[in-house]
């Protein structure tokens, strides 16, 4: 819902840019990409609202997060963004350890409107996440969840 609003804002901003400048196609695409990256950060759960401690990396796609959940219900969008191209490359290494004591949990990534489950039980793993030119987020969805999560994205 929020993502749709910022896309409308981005499209309107792009139209304004196009009508006001005689810029090259590359310059316009770079500006649009930067606008997407900037506005997509607002889809992430603010640090003050997270259940755990987040250390930010070089951009919104990277960092680390550690949390202990006690009867938590809700969704936290931890890392990610939207853009045509990421300056630091489109492959990320994700390492996580999820411990599920009770309740339900889903650690997943979004790619546009698709969701890919990472884990929904106690598990740990490392994998490569390849970003696409659409919404790419890592999130945890909990329902009366007790457990912990440690995740690092580089």
Automatic annotation (TrEMBL):
<feature type="signal peptide">
    <location>
        <begin position="1"/>
        <end position="25"/>
    </location>
</feature>
<keyword id="KW-0732">Signal</keyword>
<protein>
    <recommendedName>
        <fullName>Lipoprotein</fullName>
    </recommendedName>
</protein>
């Amino acid at each position: 819902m929020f993502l749709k609003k910022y896309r409308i804002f981005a499209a309107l901003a792009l139209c304004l840019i196009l009508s006001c400048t005689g810029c090259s196609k590359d310059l316009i695409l770079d500006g649009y990409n930067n606008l997407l990256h900037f506005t997509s950060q607002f889809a992430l759960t603010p640090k003050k609202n997270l259940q755990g401690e987040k250390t930010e990396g070089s951009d919104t796609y990277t960092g680390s997060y550690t949390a202990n959940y006690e009867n938590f219900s809700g969704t936290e969008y931890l890392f990610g963004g939207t853009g045509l191209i990421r300056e630091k490359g489109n492959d990320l290494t994700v390492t996580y350890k999820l411990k599920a004591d009770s309740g339900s949990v889903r650690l997943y990534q979004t790619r546009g409107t698709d969701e890919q489950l990472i884990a929904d039980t106690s598990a740990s793993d490392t994998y490569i996440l390849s970003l696409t030119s659409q919404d790419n987020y890592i999130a945890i969805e909990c329902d009366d969840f007790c457990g912990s999560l440690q995740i690092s994205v580089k």
